[in-house]
Amino acid sequence: MGKGVDVPARAILVDKPAGPTSHDVVAAVRRALGGARTGHTGTLDPFATGLLVVLVGRATRIAPFVSGLHKTYLAGIRLGARSASGDPEGPISPGGAPPEEAALRAALDGLVGESEQRVPALSAVKVEGERLYARTRRGEQVERPTRTVVVERADLVSYDVVTGHAIVDIRCGSGTYVRQLAADLGDHLGCGGYCHDLRRTEVGTMSVEAAIPPDEVSPGCGIDPAEALGHIARVDLDQHEAREVRHGRPIPGAPDGAVGPVALVSAGALLAVAEASDGVLQPRVVLAG
């Protein structure tokens, strides 16, 4: 997160191009907004493109409620070759013959569900206080940590058995390495595989179709943070309730059966995120004083 000038709380949907890092894109947004406080809600590798949700101003306070959302990707997977990085950076080495389509579909079905994924060797995860990619590039043999990941779907969009190039629509939980899914898929099929290109199309209920290029960001663009929280319950407040919430006081009126975070909206704008419990809404994050 960066600190800077005070601007209205917004969520800017940016269509990240291939090449720059997510940090580069956030820095460009910050400059375009005159040094406003900014932060992203989930990185994309430099080779990847697509939806990067950048929170601006006091909207950075809702990052914990956005960063864990499921994400959707269109992954271009090259079967019949291996990449040390899991992506086009390589180095690339030849593998076996690409599989028949039926075998590929069966292997994709096997990715769906909860599993333990070993993080890529060239990842930014810290092992004994140092980034894994730094130790890997020094030639060290390091035990790569695992994490529990969830793949909601892995649907084959198209496949060329001659070139081994597949396009797969993947919906997965936060923290899933899609390039590692591609490598694991290739290993399972015995031919090798890597993620040749990757595009993030959705974060929660937000779509890249509503995103803009980084160079089109300007003051006032973006959506109200309430729209970034379309995955949780919402309560519209009257003036008295809004005044209480601004002071961090609990209010009655939790939606029936609601448990967990609830977006509290006043005059069409997100005022706070509350925790619903026993019919009461207790503000946890307040965007306006």
Per-chain topology:
Layout: E1 10-16, H1 22-32, E2 38-40, E3 49-56, H2 63-66, E4 71-79, E5 81-83, E6 92-94, H3 101-111, E7 113-118, E8 126-127, E9 130-131, H4 132-137, E10 146-160, E11 165-172, H5 178-189, E12 193-203, E13 206-207, H6 225-228, E14 233-236, H7 239-246, E15 251-252, E16 260-266, E17 269-277, E18 280-286
Parallel strand pairs: 3-12, 14-16
Antiparallel strand pairs: 1-3, 2-3, 4-11, 4-12, 5-6, 7-10, 8-9, 10-11, 12-13, 15-18, 16-17, 17-18
Helix pairs in contact: 3-5
Describe the overall structure:
By secondary structure, the chain is α+β, with helices and mostly antiparallel strands. The protein has three domains: 10-69 and 204-226, Pseudouridine synthase (2-Layer Sandwich); 71-203, Pseudouridine synthase; 232-286, PUA domain (Archaeosine Trna-guanine Transglycosylase, Chain: A, domain 4, Roll). It is built from seven helices and 18 strands. Strand 5 and strand 6 form a beta hairpin. Helix 3 (101-111) packs across helix 5 (178-189). The chain is elongated and about 70 Å long.
- Could you say which overall geometry the principal axes of the C-alpha atoms support? elongated
CATH topology of the largest domain: Pseudouridine synthase
Low-confidence stretches: none
Number of structurally distinct domains: 3
The percentage of residues in β strands lies in 35-45%
Q: How far is the first residue's CA from the last residue's CA? A: 20 Å
**Top-tier CATH class of the largest domain:** Alpha Beta
SS elements, strand count: 18
User: Kindly state the mean pLDDT as a whole number?
Assistant: 90
Name given to the CATH homologous superfamily of the largest domain: Pseudouridine synthase
- Which percent range fits the helix content? 10-25%
**CATH architecture field of the largest domain:** 2-Layer Sandwich
Largest sheet: 9 strands, mixed
**Tally of separate helices:** 7
What is the element string, with H for helices and E for strands? Answer: EHEEHEEEHEEEHEEHEEHEHEEEE
Instruction: Give the radius of gyration.
Output: 21 Å
Structural class: alpha+beta
